[in-house]
Design goal:
Number of strands: 2
Radius of gyration: 29 Å
Largest sheet: 2 strands, antiparallel
Strand content: under 5%
Strand order of the largest sheet: 1-2
Oligomer: single chain
Order of helices and strands: HHHHHHHHHHHHHHEEH
Number of domains: 2
Number of helices: 15
């Protein structure tokens, strides 16, 4: 009998000990969760969303403005038949072998060579552009200095940034995204038909945004839109991913102190097409007579 009581008492003590250990573990888990949550708070508070393109992303597009503004001077002054600029660009891998071959095919048309290389550097990144400017120092020092000065001045002015609405419309070729947007059921085929019928670039974007913003919940519009843009426009996609999706459907440039210059785009064939600056009216305003008739 005494042995049985003693055994029972030991079991009770053991159970009590196990219970204390379990309670201690639970307490540690709770404390650890609180610590983790407290550590995450500063990061969450420090993250600031903006409807303007980040300065790091804007740098990608600054050289395009420089090449536009200095377009005529570059076309008039460069002569690749003299000197070693073209060889240096190939050696530094600032242009591709196919670009090099295409330029050589235009030997009898010096200005066309210059036009071609301008359009190629607009599609390349800032590193390639900087290599191009540096390659001009020896043979075209004045032109190199002028391009470099303009480039640095524009970088210094990045406190004035384009809103995402204008950046999207002025930078993205809508043809790059219409098919995947239609495939994912974010737009209907009327916009594709309107593009084929020659509807203006800006108007197509406004109609596209109107369709997307009116979709019911459950379409994962932002995720799909960002994924589609990421294929060719990673910086803009990243910027859109950091803001509320509805905020990109209207222009916010009226918050800036000065307007931004117009940008030009190419249609992929090397020809230029002027892209006008976007107005500061939200796309939700009443439609024009043209829109009502469609």
């Amino acid at each position: 009998m005494d042995s049985s009581c003693s055994c029972h008492a030991e079991i009770v003590k053991m159970l009590e000990k196990i219970n204390r250990i379990e309670n201690g573990i639970k307490t540690l888990i709770i404390q650890n969760q609180k610590t983790c949550n407290n550590e995450e708070l500063p990061r969450k508070k420090s993250r600031r969303s903006s409807n303007f393109t980040p300065e790091s992303s804007m740098k990608v597009y600054v050289h395009k403005e420089v090449l536009q503004e200095k377009y005529q001077k570059i076309v008039d002054r460069l002569d690749f038949s003299k000197g070693h600029v073209l060889d240096e660009l190939v050696q530094e891998e600032a242009i591709s072998e196919s670009d090099h071959e295409n330029i050589l095919k235009l030997t009898q048309k010096r200005k066309d060579q210059n036009r071609y290389i301008i359009h190629r550097f607009r599609h390349y990144g800032t590193d390639n552009f900087e290599t191009f400017v540096n390659s001009l120092k020896e043979e075209y020092p004045d032109l190199s200095d002028e391009l470099n000065l303009s480039y640095k001045e524009k970088l210094d002015l990045k406190v004035r940034r384009k809103c995402l609405f204008c950046m999207v419309i002025q930078t993205i070729d809508i043809s790059d995204i219409l098919d995947p947007l239609f495939e994912n059921k974010l737009i209907d085929d009327t916009i594709i038909e309107q593009r084929l019928n020659g509807t203006s670039h800006d108007l197509l974007w406004r109609r596209l945004f109107n369709q997307i913003k009116d979709l019911p919940p459950g379409y994962n519009c932002k995720e799909v839109f960002v994924d589609i843009l990421s294929v060719k426009y990673k910086d803009i996609a990243k910027a859109i991913d950091s803001v509320q999706f509805q905020s990109i459907f209207h222009c916010s440039c009226h918050l800036q102190k000065a307007p931004f210059p117009r940008a030009f785009e190419t249609d992929g064939s090397g020809s230029l097409s002027d892209v006008s600056s976007t107005s500061e009216c939200p796309i939700s305003e009443k439609k024009t007579p043209i829109e009502n008739s469609t």
